[in-house]
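Q: I'm building a small set of examples for a reading group on sequence design. Run inverse folding on the following structure and report the sequence directly after it, with nothing in between.
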């Protein structure tokens, strides 16, 4: 459910935080990997959507245990 008081990040802010290009973040959005809201030509990504995206793409070496 959408939290109105949740923090929203712009596409460039997400790119900077993850140390990837804006184009990469845009591609994740267009592929449906990263949820975002679009207002005109601008995108906003919620903190919870970013957290969900990162968890879904977390690398776990075989044999690693989450203790």
């Amino acid at each position: 459910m959408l939290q109105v008081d949740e923090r929203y990040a712009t596409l460039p802010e997400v790119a900077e935080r993850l140390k990837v290009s804006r184009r990469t973040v845009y591609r994740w959005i267009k592929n449906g990997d990263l949820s975002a809201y679009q207002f005109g030509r601008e995108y906003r990504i919620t903190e919870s959507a970013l957290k969900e995206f990162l968890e879904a793409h977390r690398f776990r070496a075989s044999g690693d245990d989450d203790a």
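The longest strand covers residues 42-46.
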